[in-house]
Design a protein that fits this description.
five-stranded parallel sheet; three-stranded antiparallel sheet; alpha/beta
């Protein structure tokens, strides 16, 4: 890939080249104290979330185990899990394509090793599976959207960026879903993101015109007041912005936003937002969040998208003490095989520029929280970017010279430390019977595993405790701090950690084959095309 896009790199990003990494914010109050009235009666809606795939519960290329999203984990620990409403995707491993289920299907049919003479039959079997998935969601039971009598508490849709959250509604999504075609060569669930969104957005029984956005749906919940203080929501979590940069690593293409960044169709050409454009979109989102009657609001920062293992750094670091590798390509392409002429990649400089843009996004998010707290609003910051930085294996953990002065490794909960091997941010691998590496990222190399969603939940619970949120046991009795996530429960539910597909070895050959033969990433992570 040519390095021609640097001419369009924003000036604000260019000015930050070579600067040290942004230091994470460790105080969710930003050092600004506000008056806290007596909690009183708890609002009817104890937890509401607005987000993208990281909040939706996306994992291994699909949204399926939404009862294990980090919001659902928090609701469970609040003692209100049975009251927490979230969308469900029950068929064929969810939308758009469950990589874990596909690999297990292939393992069941062909064993842990795919021999060369089995490749044609494996390809036929895989395409048959893809065809069944497509039929289920486009023409089968999955095409029927449930009509709900209440608004979901988890208001998150994978692939959505700030503009989508500002503008998209059920009507817009429904209009985008054309009559599907049973395409033999491109077996992908058409408009899968819109289909997923229709299970999140209020249904016609609540929103007859289909015009509500995620933000206006949250505002409606805020108006459902029961605590006498004017708050329908106790805690609102806003975790947005990753999709304003994520496509740089899922597509390995850096295209800075320009005119049309705020248009639903034209913005699809861009993979990373100019910080000026991001700040404009964020300002509009923050203005609407201020209209939502929530007792506490927690904003999450945008993680650095160049850390997840979907984009693997090639070779040694560009210089002693650098955070970056010369090139970033797919995790199944090793150093000896990589050829920058033929293999998809972004450069180390592009990775640094994207990280710098995200730092500026996060500064803007922090500024909104600071302004709100200064004005007396109970807003908080959860520095998700700093959390991931502290878990970054190759960037910091394995390279002491690259560590900034503030860096400290993240201390995993004891239950996760006891796992063998201890989970890391590397791509998950198996020896055919057990996990041999990774464990924090699922099979799409971008989204967390169930135990990693538990880590996010734990950090947000800590912020909620700072805000004075009361947690309860399932019988209604009060829990005392510290409130710890039940990681044993999550470990039992985490099939990738317990028993990853046996055909997933350290070389990731099965994923390389799936990408080459099936266009795996375009089916799962290319949210904009």
């Amino acid at each position: 890939m040519a390095d021609h896009m640097h001419a369009h790199t924003p000036d604000e990003v260019l000015a930050g080249r070579g600067q040290p990494p942004r230091e994470p914010v460790t105080d969710p109050t930003l050092g600004i104290a506000i008056a806290h009235p007596e909690p009183g009666q708890e609002p009817r809606h104890r937890l509401v979330t607005i987000g993208d795939s990281l909040t939706h519960g996306f994992q291994s290329g699909a949204v399926f185990n939404t009862d294990l999203s980090y919001p659902a984990i928090i609701a469970h620990e609040l003692g209100s899990g049975s009251d927490f409403r979230f969308p469900v995707y029950p068929g064929y491993g969810g939308l758009p394509l469950n990589i874990e289920l596909l690999l297990r299907e292939l393992q069941e049919r062909f064993g842990t090793d795919l021999d060369w003479w089995e490749v044609p039959l494996a390809l036929f079997h895989a395409r048959k599976f893809l065809d069944e998935v497509e039929d289920y969601w486009e023409r089968g039971p999955g095409s029927v959207v449930p009509q709900l009598n209440a608004i979901n508490h988890n208001l998150s849709v994978y692939g959505w960026d700030l503009r989508d959250v500002l503008e998209k509604s059920a009507k817009i999504c429904q209009d985008a879903i054309a009559t599907p075609t049973d395409n033999l060569l491109r077996q992908t669930v058409e408009n899968n993101g819109d289909r997923a969104a229709l299970r999140v957005l209020p249904s016609s029984t609540v929103d007859r015109g289909g015009t509500m956005t995620l933000l206006s749906a949250a505002r409606r919940l805020g108006e459902d007041r029961s605590d006498g203080s004017g708050h329908g929501i106790e805690t609102l979590i806003v975790f947005l912005g990753a999709n304003n940069a994520l496509q740089t690593v899922t597509q390995l293409r850096v295209e800075w936003s320009d005119e049309g960044y705020d248009d639903l169709e034209r913005k699809k050409a861009y993979t990373v937002w100019n910080p000026v454009h991001f700040k404009d979109e964020l300002r509009q989102v923050a203005a609407q969040v201020r209209q939502i009657a929530a007792r506490h609001v927690i904003w999450c920062t945008v993680p650095h998208v160049t850390i997840p293992p979907i984009a693997r750094g090639i070779g040694g670091k560009t210089a002693p003490g650098s955070r970056y590798f010369p090139y970033y390509t797919r995790p199944w392409i090793d150093d000896d095989t990589f050829n920058h002429v033929i293999h998809p990649h972004i450069t180390g400089q592009q990775a640094e520029d994207v990280d710098r843009a995200i730092d500026l996004y996060n500064d803007a998010i922090t500024d909104h929280v600071r302004a709100a707290r200064t004005a007396g609003a109970d807003w908080f910051l959860m520095d998700t970017a700093g959390l991931l930085d502290r878990l970054a294996s190759r960037r910091y953990m394995k390279d002491m010279t690259a560590r900034p002065p503030w860096w400290r490794p993240y201390q995993l909960p004891p239950q996760l430390q006891a796992l063998a091997p201890e989970p890391t941010s590397r791509f998950i691998t198996s020896d055919g019977t057990r996990r041999t590496g990774g464990g924090l990222f699922s099979l799409d190399g971008v989204h967390p595993t169930t135990i990693a969603y538990g880590i996010v939940a734990q950090e947000l619970i800590n912020v909620m405790l700072t805000a004075g949120v009361r947690f309860r046991h399932s019988d209604g009795s009060a829990r005392t701090a510290p409130v710890m996530v039940d990681f044993e429960r999550l470990i039992r539910r985490d099939t990738l950690v317990n028993q990853p597909p046996g055909n997933l070895d350290a070389t990731l050959d099965i994923l390389a084959w799936a990408q080459s033969a099936l266009g795996l990433l375009k089916r799962t992570l290319y949210f904009r095309v």
